[in-house]
């Protein structure tokens, strides 16, 4: 951690300046932030540009008014990334298979906008998803090509740094770092946001360790995984704890046999309903009533209300949805009714959100893209499917993968890029010294 701070102190100071300026004036931040990115671009500091985008996404997740600038600027930032990727396209790897897999889903999402009550916002959200899938793999691979795998380590340590920073802030402002009756949230909007973050930073660290055996020392790995575990527990995120536990169990099975791993996953699916019906009794029996907040388990934390409401709405638009952001429009329109039933917030389920927005056709194409990518990834890495099941469990209870401009989807995109990109695989095997070489098309052919 000390090495990371020392190596990146200028960038960390810049990010601190962004926060200070943005908390005082949004227009001033647009000037300072825009100029900063331009200077980084001129110096070819693509990793710092990508890290800055990640930082803005994290700040945008915070509910405090001091980070309102990030909520606005993230929309401009993704456009800036697209401009950089287009203007500097000769410097970037020419192949971006990730976006290609999702194009059929994007096509259905665009068609669904014809039925949208929120068409302008829906189009913006669709476009931002496309831009994220296009730009992040390009910038990520370019950064590795320029600076080597050390940038992956720095990205992970930046996430760990923010968790530690969030914990230390409690001694100055307890309510900034802790909320919801003493649950840790670090710099995120709520403890569940931190829980999602721990799942994905864990996945990124695990995949990076598999690919770059010499990148992390034993002390690095202890620091990373202990920090993640403590953050997970202090956040009280049941989803995160169960998802990571599933990952470790799945990993053992998949290393013995992919077939055994798949059978175990099917067993978990079939057991889900039985466990759900008896969850309160199970939690009480193992003595974890306080951690799992037994009083909210009994009531479903309001999620079941939202899910039932969303399912009823899906029946009216079963095959094709009503475009990105329809779920937000629907829940906001019925906010008072849902509040009376005991629910506040959104749908809290990525599958249902995509079904609402793009219909069952869109949902099928989205899952098809995700599964095909992980099938491809499994040929390169044995932990690919355990990561997929961990993610699929998380999005069953959280909405993050239905949106692009959050600090979670970007990490999954980076994980998938490492596991599937053909140039990256050649780079790892030593067949390419760079991810951008004059004869790369001949090599790929």
From TrEMBL:
This is O-antigen ligase family protein. One of its GO terms (molecular function) is ligase activity. The keyword Transferase does not apply. Keywords: Ligase, Membrane, Transmembrane, Transmembrane helix. GO terms for cellular component: membrane. The keyword Ligase applies. It is found in: Membrane. PANTHER family: LIPOPOLYSACCHARIDE BIOSYNTHESIS PROTEIN PA4999-RELATED, TEICHURONIC ACID BIOSYNTHESIS PROTEIN TUAE. Pfam families: Wzy_C. It is a multi-pass membrane protein. Residues 224-367 form the O-antigen ligase-related domain. The chain crosses the membrane at residues 12-38, 45-63, 99-120, 155-172, 192-212, 224-250, 256-275, 352-375, 381-401, 408-428. It comes from the Bacteria.
